[in-house]
Amino acid sequence: DGTPPQLPEDTLLLVIEASNTENAPKVPYAHTVAFSHYNHISGQLPIDPKTGKMVAGGVKEQAGQCLKNIKAIIESVDHVMDDVVKINICLKNIADIDAVNEVYTTFFTSDLPARTTVGVSAIPMDALVQIDAVVSNAEGTPPEA
Questions:
Q1: Strands 84-91 and 16-19
Q2: pLDDT tens, 9-42?
Q3: What structural domains does the chain harbor?
């Protein structure tokens, strides 16, 4: 049923911690920041962490790589994709939404998380898609960072 609202005095014990993993592309910012009962996953581009280059192919391949990177980050903080409560997807061409959905649904085994998908005029590195996520601990206790 979710975490109850917190009293101001309870915020002194909140966890705020950033972390990175070698299993996602090297970037000049945190892959994830744990805050309270959530891990916020930074927007992921379709970069192969082994090569540091954008994956070949179209929007399906790019969305798949973004989600692989998110999965690696989530697993690095001892969670699974089914702990995701919110996904944001930025598409260079909003008409690609059906192609992205084909790949997207394969990354989850239970109910799909809440999601926002928007069309944008540009994405870094001229990528076709960028995806970020929010992970929660269902028991209402702070996630490990």
A1: unpaired
A2: 555 555 566 677 777 777 766 777 777 778 899 9
A3: 8-136 (3.30.1330.40)
